[in-house]
């Protein structure tokens, strides 16, 4: 028996399979055979779709995107720290004779 490599399915593929399972015109086994995935995976994607469907209309997705964006103060602090590190390293390299002072 040959071992099948792990496949990564896109979100649109998962949604298509879950919606096909929700329609109910085919059994889970038939849907799984049609899309060449395991029936347990179809059940899991269907469960996830049902759990997260309300987030589409509640704006839950927009809230999670805002949380992932770094704060402006954090970005300014990081820029300042990187500027200090660059100045320090350029001074150290100049003293070591590895970089000339003129550019």
TrEMBL record:
Pfam family example for this protein?
A: HTH_Tnp_1
| Top-rank lineage group of the source organism | Bacteria
Q: Which SUPFAM superfamilies match?
A: TrpR-like
In its UniProt record, a GO molecular function of this protein is: transposase activity
* GO BP: any one term: DNA transposition
**Name of the protein this chain belongs to:** Transposase
Q: Which organism is it from?
A: Noviherbaspirillum autotrophicum
